Amino acid sequence: MAQLKKREEIIKETVSSGGFLVQMYFDIHGKEKDVLQNVMIDLIGKITGEKGVADAIGKIEEPIQAGDEEMFSTSAQVQIAAKNLATLFRIVSHYSPIGVEIIQPHDPKISLGELQGVLMDVAIMSNEFSTFAMKRLLKPEEVDDLNRQIKAREKIGKHLREKTEKG
């Protein structure tokens, strides 16, 4: 009971300070039931330890056999109190949940700086994915040119982020 009250206080404080309470849904499939549950336990533990996570608690479903195959499936619901939008974005992009439900606040207030920071993170992630794909398709000499362009973009991006953070 005391632990539940403490959790409720953490959530209330996080949301009132501009954070979010969300429910994320994850699924995983494999041939070994025990391995699936251990992977989900590890996933929840990693999310709990992420920077910007004030609190997280998860519920893992018992693995079920997927049809006639020798495959099993399980899912987890993880409720997360995140301190800001950037934390949510990082968790979603890193852990790829199959669903995200924002529970609180109902009318979020997001500062321009926070929104710009998240959009910069989206741009960086998109650029990294494009670079990864291009490097797999380009000839070695073209990769060298691309690497020079990336270094130049990194400098510009760093400058823009610093400028944005200063306001």
Quick gist of this model?
The chain is of the alpha+beta class and 167 residues long. The protein has helices at residues 2-16, 33-48, 85-95, 112-137, 140-166; strands at residues 20-30, 53-60, 64-65, 72-82, 99-104.
Report the average pLDDT across residues. Answer: 86
Count of folded domains: 2
> What is the level 1 CATH name of the largest domain?
Alpha Beta
Q: Helix/strand/pairing class, anyone?
A: alpha+beta
The dominant shape is: flat
Q: What distance separates the N and C termini?
A: 43 Å
Number of strands: 5
Please tell me the CATH architecture of the largest domain by its name: 2-Layer Sandwich
Order of helices and strands: HEHEEEHEHH
CATH topology of the largest domain: Alpha-Beta Plaits
Q: How much of the residues is beta strand, in percent?
A: 15-25%
Describe this structure in words.
Strands 1, 2, 3, 4 and 5 form a 5-stranded antiparallel beta sheet that branches. This protein has 2 domains: 1-107, Alpha-Beta Plaits (2-Layer Sandwich); 115-165. The longest helix is centred in the C-terminal third of the chain and has 27 residues, at 140-166. It is built from 5 helices and 5 strands, in the order H-E-H-E-E-E-H-E-H-H. It is an alpha+beta fold. Helix 3 packs parallel to helix 4 and helix 4 packs antiparallel against helix 5. The protein has helices at 2-16, 33-48, 85-95, 112-137, 140-166, and strands spanning 20-30, 53-60, 64-65, 72-82, 99-104. Strand 3 (64-65) and strand 4 (72-82) form a beta hairpin. It is flat and about 55 Å long. The mean pLDDT is 86. The termini are far apart.
